[in-house]
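> forwarded from #structure-qc
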């Protein structure tokens, strides 16, 4: 039940860990420069963060351990040795002292790994990389040729698992998403499912602005703007019964949906404009929707341990009562 927050003053900003039960905070990093916080990523075991700061056009990355006595805890470990410019950066899922990153090198984007404790660069994985992600111990990347690659163990060579049906679109953002054993590729707002047996991809939604996997990894919630849909990734074992691949329409709103979260495998919470609501995914008879509260420009976060909803609105933090039994 701990949140990582950025707090700003007139002269500096700091990162604090805020315990939502004890209502107590601990400062873990203070910046006394004019750099602005750009991005934060958690390690798979939630004991380290990568934070990036920007000053002008210069982006600098560091690793900070949240466990006292560990490397990078007394002072952040700089990632300047990776060189610039970096395209993307994330923790390795197979070694807690490594990061995986893509970097511009001449006319290509190279994907490789580095040990940030020893400041050691490891051999590249691939060239001409458009985007990459990790899923468990598996590394996945999309090549500029449209081929999707997978490397599942350090000793195994990478293999092609699928290909885009059409050439890559210029000035379009691509991202890879995994939910359970099911993979998807986002091409802009277009969502494609990845078939690793047939080695191809097919469109499942032409517009998928927000996607969220259910806690049981059996369903995917999708907002195409003002509508909410549920895509079943596996055959359902309880009511309402659906087969893998079924798409179920839940609701349409007058405003676009900005936040979409699962609070259980059967209920979603979302925001549309200032309204925050919950909705049950059982579409039989009539879909049950309940209004919770209104906040301007809300950002929603779900705390699974305490079953509470966190709302950040205009610099203020609000915590709900327990929403799920």
């Amino acid at each position: 039940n701990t949140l990582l927050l950025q707090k700003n003053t007139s002269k500096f900003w700091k990162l604090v860990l805020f315990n939502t039960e004890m209502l107590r905070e601990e400062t873990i990093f203070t910046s006394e420069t004019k750099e602005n916080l750009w991005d934060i990523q958690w390690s798979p075991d939630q004991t380290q963060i990568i934070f990036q700061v920007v000053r002008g056009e210069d982006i600098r990355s560091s690793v900070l351990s949240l466990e006292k006595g560990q490397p990078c805890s007394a002072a952040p470990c700089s990632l300047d040795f990776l060189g610039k410019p970096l395209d993307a950066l994330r923790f390795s899922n197979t070694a807690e002292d490594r990061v995986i990153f893509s970097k511009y090198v001449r006319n290509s984007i190279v994907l490789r790994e580095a040990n940030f404790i020893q400041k050691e660069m490891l051999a590249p994985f691939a060239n001409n990389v458009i985007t990459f992600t990790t899923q468990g111990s598996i590394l996945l990347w999309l090549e500029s040729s449209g081929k999707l690659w997978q490397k599942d163990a350090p000793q195994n060579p990478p293999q092609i698992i699928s290909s885009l049906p059409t050439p890559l679109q210029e000035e379009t953002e691509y991202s890879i998403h995994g939910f359970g054993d099911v993979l998807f590729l986002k091409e802009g707002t277009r969502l494609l499912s990845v078939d690793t047996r047939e080695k191809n991809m097919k469109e499942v939604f032409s517009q998928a602005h927000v996607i969220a996997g259910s806690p049981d990894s059996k369903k995917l919630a999708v907002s195409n703007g003002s509508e909410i849909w549920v895509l079943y990734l596996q055959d359902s074992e309880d009511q309402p019964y659906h087969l893998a691949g079924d798409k179920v329409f839940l609701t349409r709103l007058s405003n676009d949906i900005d936040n979409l979260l699962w609070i259980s495998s059967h209920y979603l919470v979302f925001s549309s404009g200032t309204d925050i609501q919950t909705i049950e995914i059982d579409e039989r008879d009539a879909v049950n929707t309940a209004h919770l509260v209104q906040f301007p420009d809300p950002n929603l976060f779900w705390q699974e341990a305490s079953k509470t909803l966190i709302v950040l609105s205009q610099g203020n933090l609000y915590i709900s009562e327990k929403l799920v039994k």
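QC bot note: The first strand starts at residue 2 and ends at 8. The CA atoms of residues 309 and 320 lie 5 Å apart.
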